[in-house]
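Entry 14. Structure prediction run on the chain below.
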Amino acid sequence: MVYLCIFYTMRKILLSFIRQLVFWILFFNLTRLIFVIYYLNIILVEKIRFSEVFGVFLHSFKLDLATACYIMIVPFLLLSVQSVWSPGWLNRINKIYASLIIIGYSLTVVGEMGIYAEWKTKLTYKVIKYLSHPGEIFNSAETGTFYILVIIFLIICAAAIFINLFCRMHAGIINYWITRRNSTNSNKPKSVLLFGS
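Output returned:
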């Protein structure tokens, strides 16, 4: 019975980790899609084929997965601690951490959108020297563009909330299916905790 409880706890942690990993990959692809839509006129003027634009999403999967795995180091450690000790504040730490990453990444994407038309390149490590004067980056954009970018930033953050809810909804469906299946066998625990809170 102890091994069965350990199995369910580890499965819960693994499913939570996978759900968060899927969230980040979907989030990265969403920001990439917004970037492509924002610069659709350049794509059309340059006569870039649809297959090349679609290829960006396929070829970036490895990078997205690697980035998501780096981001997931802290949640993994928190989930590891939760496997033996599960206070509620660990979930809050995870949510705050994810929110900070979402805001930082969204600001980076919006910054890239603002300067891409002028620089014709995405942000690189060279932008770090401009971080001491972030106002100069935003001052290089026109006022109308600045407001559009602020709106896009808010859309990206709202979309992150939607993607998170979508992942949670599907997690609830899977959890319901597991719980229902387990309730038919009296030797197994009657319920399985939802992964993540």
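The two ends are 25 Å apart (CA to CA).
Filed with the rest of this week's runs.
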